[in-house]
């Protein structure tokens, strides 16, 4: 499994907004400059995140984007699934019910399930709040 630039950039953008602590709306240009990501690419990502209500757009000269929830309420897994789709390591685990005709006899299925659980354990138990804390700790060193 490989996370695309879209997923990585979405996470960086959300972290950037969380680090601003909701003090004011943040313009995409500011995020783009800090994160060294093109504004055009961020516009694509913002549309996905705003459509599902993760971000709110504020119009006007002092406008920009803000998180709609507290950083503790966004998991890394939620953000990555919105931008990447399924994080399952194999197709047969992408749906709740495994439709593969070999599932009952597939020796490797156990391995894929373990890998899927390990990924979920990491991304679904880490929040933007965790990443904000880690970023601030990193900056103190």
From TrEMBL:
InterPro entries attached to this UniProt entry: TR_Rrf2-type_CS (IPR030489), Tscrpt_reg_Rrf2 (IPR000944), WH-like_DNA-bd_sf (IPR036388), WH_DNA-bd_sf (IPR036390)
Record keywords: DNA-binding
GO CC, any one term: cytosol
Molecular function as annotated in GO: DNA binding; DNA-binding transcription factor activity
Keyword DNA-binding: yes
A Pfam family this chain is assigned to: Rrf2
PROSITE patterns: HTH_RRF2_1, HTH_RRF2_2
Full protein name: Rrf2 family transcriptional regulator
């Amino acid at each position: 499994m490989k996370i695309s630039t879209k997923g990585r950039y979405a996470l960086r953008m959300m972290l950037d907004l969380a680090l601003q602590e909701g003090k004011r709306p943040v313009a995409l240009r500011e995020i783009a400059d800090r994160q060294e990501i093109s504004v055009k690419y961020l516009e694509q990502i913002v549309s996905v995140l705003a459509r599902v209500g993760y971000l709110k757009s504020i119009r006007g000269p002092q406008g920009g984007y803000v998180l709609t929830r507290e950083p503790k309420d966004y998991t890394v897994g939620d953000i990555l699934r919105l931008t990447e789709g399924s994080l399952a390591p194999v197709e047969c685990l992408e749906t709740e019910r495994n439709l593969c005709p070999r599932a009952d006899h597939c020796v490797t299925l156990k391995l894929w399930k373990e890998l899927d659980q390990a990924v979920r354990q990491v991304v679904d138990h880490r929040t933007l709040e965790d990443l904000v804390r880690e970023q601030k700790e990193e900056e103190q060193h």
